[in-house]
Amino acid sequence: LVRGVPGNVVELTCHPGVYDETLIGRDCTREDGMCERRVQELKLLSEPRFLEACKKAGFQIITPSQLRHLHYGEKQHAA
Question: Please, which residues have CB within 8 angstroms of residue 79's CB and are 6 or more apart in sequence?
Answer without folding.
Answer: 64
